[in-house]
């Protein structure tokens, strides 16, 4: 439950790599303690964010127009997601999938391989579930922590994401 915390931390969109690095450095995984998580609500909120108009300049509070660039959402989680959603009331996993596909969001999920429901989110066009291995007797939380703590492995993850984004973005014309 996130009654005392927002579903997402809303950082403005930036065009500068150093500014993005500052935003990422400021992120902390904290809170929680209960399962499942409100991931679907956060994805629904992202999919339904406003878009700038086709001839409008870039806005820090809105996606670019749907056909002017790729929209990427990257998720790191160690827990299953809640269903149904509270916002919008009684929405379902299918509601989220349709919203993500309508918004043409490319979804990359890093979640333990033991969380089979993430396979359903792979129905989103171009979605990828990067299955974090969980050894017998290990918690999902520990598996994700170990997976991301190894800097050489994490560097490879970031390089994979950058390569995927570059390849998929090359398929879409970017507005001037």
Task: Give a topology summary.
Elements: H1 17-26, H2 39-47, E1 71-76, H3 93-102, E2 105-112, H4 118-121, E3 128-132, H5 140-149, H6 151-170
Parallel strand pairs: 1-2, 2-3
Characterization of this structure:
By secondary structure, the protein is an alpha/beta fold. 36% of the residues lie in helices and 11% in strands. The protein has six helices and three strands; from the N terminus they run ααβαβαβαα. The protein has helices spanning 17-26, 39-47, 93-102, 118-121, 140-149, 151-170; strands at 71-76, 105-112, 128-132. The chain has a three-stranded parallel β-sheet. Strand 2, helix 4 (118-121) and strand 3 (128-132) form a beta-alpha-beta unit. Helix 2 (39-47) packs parallel to helix 3 (93-102). The longest helix has 20 residues, at 151-170. It is globular, with a radius of gyration of 17 Å. The N and C termini lie far apart (42 Å).
Put the structure in a nutshell:
The chain has 176 residues and is of the alpha/beta class.
Per DSSP, what share of the residues sits in E-state strands of 2 or more residues? 5-15%
String of helices and strands: HHEHEHEHH
Strand tally, please? 3
Low-confidence stretches: none
Mean pLDDT: 83
Proportion of helical residues: 25-40%
Number of helical elements: 6
> Rounded to an integer, what's the Rg over CA atoms?
17 Å
The dominant shape is globular
- Give the termini distance in whole angstroms: 42 Å
Q: State the secondary-structure class.
A: alpha/beta
The main sheet orders its strands as 1-2-3
Which sheet architecture does the biggest sheet show? 3 strands, parallel
